[in-house]
Write a structure and sequence with these properties.
- Helix content is 44%, strand content 18%.
- By secondary structure, it is an alpha/beta fold.
- The strands form two sheets. The chain has a six-stranded parallel β-sheet, sandwiched between helices. The protein has a six-stranded parallel β-sheet with strand order 9-8-7-10-11-12, sandwiched between helices.
- It has helices spanning 16-30, 40-43, 54-63, 66-71, 81-90, 111-123, 132-137, 181-193, 209-213, 225-230, 239-247, 259-266, 280-292, 296-305, 309-322, and strands at residues 2-7, 34-39, 74-78, 95-100, 126-130, 145-148, 168-172, 199-203, 217-218, 233-236, 251-255, 274-277.
- It has 15 helices and twelve strands.
- Helix 3 crosses helix 5 and helix 11 (239-247) crosses helix 14 (296-305).
- Strand 8 (199-203), helix 9 (209-213) and strand 9 form a beta-alpha-beta unit.
- The protein has two domains: 2-151 and 308-322, Rossmann fold (3-Layer(aba) Sandwich), CATH 3.40.50; 168-305, 3-Layer(aba) Sandwich (Rossmann fold).
Length: 323
Amino acid sequence: MKALIITESYLPEIGGVEKHIASILPYLKKAGLEIEIISKREIFTDKKMLKFFGLLQIWWALSKRIKQIKEAEIVFIHDVFIYYLPFRILFPKKKVITTFHGWEKIYPIPLKNIFYKKLAQTLSNKTISIGRYINKYYQLDNKNNYLNYGGVALPAKEISVIEKEKDSFLFIGRLEKDTGLSIFLEFLDILSKENIIFSVKFCGDGLMKKECQKYGEVLGFVDVRKYLEKSANCFSGGYLSILEAMAYKNNVLSAYQNDLKKDYLLDSPFADGIACANNAEKLFKNHLTIKKQRGILDKNYQLAKNHSFKKLADLYLKAIQES
């Protein structure tokens, strides 16, 4: 079966959606799918997006790939259903599975963003929501919708907690306020006031880079696994990096600044295993409480183990069969 993936970006770009796609790809191919990928970054490598005409440019660029779209028996769309909209009209019988990976970091959510997701669900055969909060805040129907929290690749070797650096912290994500970074930096200030000697590395980049450099080393967007292997604690704002931190036996911290992000974290399978708060003082107290829980690292590891990329790929195969 020929399949086409349409996404905002793909490897070598580093990000959650990119890793999601790349990690399930081998399993989908093993199941017999012939898969091609079209990303916006690929079709606009040497072109500039024109203000107010960006979407028309994307549709025009995709029209030049009409042969690929026509030949595909199924189309997987990751977040950007609007890119495929004209071709859904041209090929109404073609199977479409759309995955909703997240929100646009604007809260309250603009009505047009809610409309786009509702439209995507209406015109897709099946949809996959990465997180229960998506259906709640975008007013989506649970019918023909699967709920998931992503996947993780387990470490190749057993992780030794004893060999980890004491009071070492890793931040994973964009270096922006909306990721909870400000709360994390205030948390580090509390550690200093409590005379706790710590080290911290930041796996990410963004507007707050210089501020982060006052606390530790900024590594940019990198493969986080070798750093998780050595760190004892990880601050993460996303499901993928939370799962990775659990798989590498890190104590996990996160923060929220609005109701949506609160539900993102607390209305999830990870809620009981992470230190989570909306301010630094509470985060510090919750972190100490979580660390004292007997067997928390092993419990979180088992939770991560239950979210394999193979299981995630199986969900996509199930969606194909039920479309």
